[in-house]
Amino acid sequence: MRLEKLSQHCETAILILLGFTILWKGGKTLESVWLLTGVAGVCTLAQYFGSKQRSVASGQKITWIVLLFIAATAVSYVLSKTKNYGLDDVLRDGSLGLLLLWYLKRPETVATATKKTFEEQFFQVLSAIAISSCIVGLFIYVLQPVNRFVGTFADPRFHTDYWPNAAAQFLLLTWPIVLLREKKSRFSLLPTGFVLGCLFLTFSRGGIIAFLGQIILLTILLFLRQGTEHKLRIHLFRLAGSLLIGVCVFFSMNALRSPFYPVESVQKKVTFTAAEGSSSASERASFWKQALILTAKKPIFGWGPGSFRFVQPHLQERVLATSDHPHNIFLKLSAERGVIVATLFLLLLFFIFQNGLHHVLRGKRLESSPDSLRIGFPLVFTALAGVIAHNLIDFNLQFVGIALPFWIMLGMLSAQAKKATEKVKYKKFLLAAPALVAVLLLLIAFREGMYLITSSMGRHAEAQGDGEKALEWYELSRGEWFTRDLEFSSANLYLESGKFEEAESALNRYYEKNGEDARGWKLLGILLATLESWPEAIEVYETAFAYGGWNDLSISHGLLQVLLAETYMQPTSDAAADSKRLPLHPDLAVYIPEIEKRVRAFVEAIEQNLHFVALSPNPEEAIRILITLSVLSPQKAPEYRAMIDSIERETLEERDRWKARLPGWLW
Fold first, then answer.
1. How far apart are CA 362 and CA 374, in angstroms?
2. Structural domain boundaries of the chain?
3. How far apart are alpha carbons 559 and 524 in whole angstroms?
4. Residue 667 three-state SS
5. Residue 108: pLDDT band by 50, 70, 90 thresholds?
6. Residue 112 has what pLDDT?
7. Residues of the chain by 3-state class (helix, strand, coil), percent to 5
8. Percent of the chain scoring above 70 in pLDDT
9. In CATH, which of 1.25.40.10, 3.90.960.10, 3.40.50.2020, 3.30.70.1070 is domain 485-582?
């Protein structure tokens, strides 16, 4: 197929990709990232080689910013401290940047009786997919033990992989688009109200706050916009009608759910007395503070894409108060990729929204917006602003199903009429650079795609308990860059089979890519303790304790055991005294108070079931530690006994409650 014809199919490919990523787990999976890279790369190359009249988009600033954003992200990955993760971030954001540039360089099209513009097709497809996602989500909400609406942002394979906040962010992006698809100058109240009802069912406090901000913003934009200010009252009246329908959907769906499963209390969510308590708000403040500290330590290129989950526990001060991201898009970028990338993204949004505001106030309309209402740009502006606002308190642009329409709509907001006399500096570079980036991303995706298949086979074998077969697949995947936990899993399997040298070699390879992961240090500590290398084991466990002691009590227990073991292995000259005295390592005086502090914090967390800690192995580890402390400090034994009783009681109650949950009707 010639490139000219191929370029004509790119719009269709993007629309198909849009549907797949939203409906297939919200685009959270790696296959969505790889498909995105393939589509973006091919469309960019087809546009470059297939266009007879090559031009640079009028937004030269945006082109430069996007290219620098991609380049700085790549450099951050090369310098990353946690390089086993992050390559998917490079591919995803690089591909999204290419699609933004692809949209800006598209030739302008005019709707005809037989063909719609890309914008009109895009909004039509996105609106239909949003409604379809809501329909699927309502079946999940009513017939599954998931207490918040998730739409299609869920992975049925894992009971923890439900993402209501991501669903809320997706609906913040799409409800204005559903509103935009009205016919004959009337708002389509039912579809819009239906989508808003699903937004309410997410029980997302941040989502509702962002939605209220969208309503205020849209009102202001329509009041100031040329051609719509005189119809503001009608717009608000019809929007109020959609809100009323949304409220009806909210209560009716909860009524359908109530015979099967409990319904979340609105009052408890508002007053922060729901299951997660106030931790949702207080932990966010901690994440923001910690992200700023991490940014200050590595301000230029950060710790590396996807690194927050590994480096944030170094600063952790509370039980299980950890996250994959700091719940703020700019702090995530600054901590992981450095101030340069965060600043570039901020500049990108500034110039695009500045340009979009100009379109809004001048009364410019999108091709898909009816003449009588002419509110296309205000709605697109409102949709994007809602997503940005929500990303200030909860990052969800890692979902391709949200990021893809978001970046395409950024292009719509930034598009300007091209000037024939416009002078472009470095025109050849601006034309060729996206094609070069596309080639690099495609090569990387192809190379890593082969390894993704082999490493996935290994993970399936490991999950089925076939360690030998898993190790064979992992060995075939040794050249993989995007290794994730491959070497860690290999080390664990080698350790279980008694192959200590191979386990140590696998861990050393893991440290070459990620020396910040407490799990790796813990596993090395287990290995050294098995070999009775007590001094080395103590040193390793100390590192693991510093990195992950607030998340995994088995690290505290392991540290306590190796400190005691080394003392037992060092007899004094008086054998009789050795047999009677309780041996104490000098470092125990330092670590016992800290370990006791963390155990007490875990006991409190278990009593509150914070982050469902009672369902983890931590309660058993806490009991083991308390038994050891009772021997070391007999005077505190009654107090420790009371703590053990509390752990056993609360853990049993919560686990029985979990087992008693009604099973899902769908899976």
1. 11
2. 113-272, 485-582, 587-667
3. 12
4. coil
5. low
6. 56
7. 70, 0, 30
8. 87
9. 1.25.40.10
